[in-house]
Amino acid sequence: MAVPRTWSGRAQSGDSMKDGIIESPRLRDLPRTAWRVALLAGMASYLDAGAIITSGGALVLYKDTFGLTLGQIGQLSALLTALFAIGALVGGRLGDRYGRRKVFTVTMAGLAAGAAMLAFAPDIIMLYAGTAVVGFCIGADLPVSMAMIAEEAPPGFKGRLIAFSHVLWMAAIGTTFIVQMIVGDMGVMGGRIMWTHILLVTLLVLVLRSTLPESQEWTRAYARRQQTGADGRALESSSLRELFGRRYIGPFIGLALFYGVFNLAANTGGQFGTLLYTELAHTSVSTAAMVNTAQLVISFASALLFMRTVDLPSRMNWFLIGGVLAVAGQAVPVVFGVNVISLAAWQIMQGVGGAFAGESMWKVWSQELFPTLLRTTAQGATTFFTRMLAAVSALGTPYLIQSGPETLFVTLTLAVAFTTALGWLYIRRVPAVAAH
């Protein structure tokens, strides 16, 4: 049977037929080695979420001991985001040129050093240095790790194993919040313990990743790059000129806009959710925390469901449902006003919808739409755009809230409607690149 397109939501190599219906392989049939690669490479997502939340919590606990001003806390938060973006750009390119394994080994070693600097920092200068190192190394690790998962996954399992990294991302949020709750009243020692959690996980991942071989798909593509065809050109190109050429510039821009614009909604909930609850809904921080916990549990369940459906022929139907749900979630505060119930509905609907039509889909599309030796370059560049856009938008969001919450939520509604339409009308129609 001809396979029309890999990961398209249609048939995949490795799918089976029963009574004329395409059936994807079951997760219990997945080899243990594939789970191992997915777990160790996917820990990039765990450390990404863990470091961001740890930074926010630890800075508050460090505030009095180090004499941090609100301005300095803002500078450190912006530094983490900016260096993440730069790291993704650099690490993505290096991953295509020198291999996945080399880059994610170096980045884990760097992340361990940065986490140690923040856990044992004696002064403010070390806080700035450690934050810069952590941000850069996590950003550099993410695109090569996602590519490693996709390239080593057996046929029929690629989407699900990439989606597994999003499950790890959600797990990190829960784990880090638990650590923060335990040490939240311990002052500077609590902040050091939070960063020690990241340090210990990083060291464990570094040791275990050292046992992984290089991506076989990248190795084959690299070998083809060393060979030349009859026209004297490499059989496999890794030139940036090709990425910005007619074949790939469309999906490259499309994915950058999809991830960047959708992330505006997700970032608003993450950075300003508590502010909206306390300042506009006039409720307590503890109430906001309860809603955030409920939203996390529901989003985690949605991520597991996405993992089970992403390789099915119905994948894009789930995407459309998720997109519509996320759009509706942004509109709830506009229609019903800003209150505890409307904000809770906003966060929960966005969490569920985003599991099917947000960052997790960007991760899958980023692997399927670019050739092997341009894959992490493209993903790193779209990550750079997204994080920089998030940093800039964070500067303006408080003013949107101040001018009236309706302005903010109308903007977010239009943003998510745009990304849903972009994914449904354009990105899903782009032909996937076959692996060599």
TrEMBL record:
Membrane topology: Multi-pass membrane protein
GO molecular function, one term: carboxylic acid transmembrane transporter activity
Major facilitator superfamily (MFS) profile domain sequence ranges: 34-431
InterPro entries: MFS, MFS_dom, MFS_trans_sf
UniProt KW Transmembrane helix keyword: yes
Transmembrane segments: 37-61, 73-91, 103-121, 127-149, 161-183, 189-208, 248-266, 286-306, 318-338, 407-427
Full protein name: MFS transporter
